[in-house]
Amino acid sequence: MANIVHVLTTSAQRYPDxxxxxxxxxxxxxxxxxxxxxxxxxALLRRGxxxxxxxxxxxxxxxxxxxxxxxxxxxGLVAVPMNAKLAGPEVAVILGDxxxxxxxxxxxxxxxxxxxxxxxxxxxxxxxxxxGAPGGDDFDRLLAEGDPGLAPAEVAPDDLAWLFYTxxxxxxPKGAQLTHxxxxxxxxxxxxxxxxxxxxxxxxxxxxxxxxxxLYALGAIARGTDNLxxxxxxxxxxxxxxxxxxxxxxxxxxxxxxMIVRLLAVEGKPDTGxxxxxxxxxxxxxxxxxxxxxxxxxxxxxxxxxQGESPMxxxxxxxxxxxxxxxDSAGVAHPGIEVSILDADDRxxxxxxxxxVCVRGDVVMRGYWNNPDATARALRGGWLHTGDxxxxxxxxxxxxxxxxxxxxxxxxxxxxxxxxxxALVQHPAVAxxxxxxxxxxxxxxxxxxxxxxATTPPxxxxxxxxxxxxxxxxxxxxKKIIYLEALPKSAYGKVLRREARxxxxxxx
Length: 508
Ligand code: AMP
Hints:
Bound molecules: adenosine monophosphate
Structural class: alpha/beta
Radius of gyration: 23 Å
Strand content: 25-35%
Strand order of the largest sheet: 2-1-10-9-11-12-13-14-15
Shape: globular
Number of strands: 25
Number of helices: 15
């Protein structure tokens, strides 16, 4: 199995003059993308990086993203994607744990990066990108140093390609190690079951390239597709619909359910008849929303269920090829990817019974970076234990019931209550805190914190909310603070998160 950069090098041979990437009025052909990626990779090697070293990508969606990603692979380096909204302490933890030797970041993040104090002696090379600007930045200077004739690095199939950090419920982020084999097989599953991209497709990328949309770009690149990177800043549903109509977009590369709900709420009806495929997933979607989206846009939707440890690939539900599939399901397994429901003793349960969703196959991560205990737990018995509770019916259709952990999914982003609690508890007026998600029509769930104040009167709600954002990304901040005299606790003194949530919901 080849270096995953093969998906680009072959398309550069077959479709050199076709458009590979468009962003902010800039167009990059397949020939140029390959050349720039080779330059980027070779420039990093010339600066002293060695194959296997990690390159952190702390970038918002932009044209340069795919250059840096493929450039890292060209040189046999490992990409460490980071959500562009992360706060300084979160970035520092990922850089420290991964031991990244280069950090590619957007210009607006320059003060945050300078505040980390990690350059110089720590040997971290920083590369600043003027996202959407016409050139002449650090990134362009780096490309000018590089060699466009670099040969793709020889890698073994199980060499690391993408180190994806998913915070654990314990608060310590874990790096899921994905290999060239994992990404190649993920690309096959995409092209076989989800979206058979062609050179005539125009794929719109709206969700962060640091997550699913970036991974699913690999299939589009493999087929010579034109990748249009949305540059509207935040997600503006009316602008997205207009863009689809204006550019005759054929594929929505990846949407989280919240985006679909917001698209459905737009009153105007621009012509979206060019769409032939829209991939969504990453969080549960309500049946009535599934029904409404098919009614409004046609049977173009394909749901995918996956997680960072088995990226974008556990099951899929293609509404076009399986029009009778139950809308409340997550579909069926891809060929070659085994999905099983196991009980607490890791024994398979009979069809229709609940248990933990477990996965085995070439898409499953190699393990967590530097974390043998978490790896042994997650991969025990050779199966990836997803932490999701589900059941599989007689026909092999998976239904997801709940999450065994308490992860909050808001707007498709995973938020770990413990991280939010650790931020809030640092405020002097907070004695105790427990955080949980409550249902929300638009976002799926909203973050709520129940706080026992240390002062009378308690601090204003707005003060605590803004305090939290000095430690965690703004999208993780609580939407609401509820003051309680005491938190519900078990006989062992453990805070009962679900009980606190129940009390708050009952009070609403
Ligand atoms: P992440 O590792 O950030 O990709 O989050 C993965 C988690 O999101 C899974 O373990 C599920 O709990 C949830 N998830 C992903 N896809 C779906 C889906 N199609 N339906 C319901 N939940 C999903």
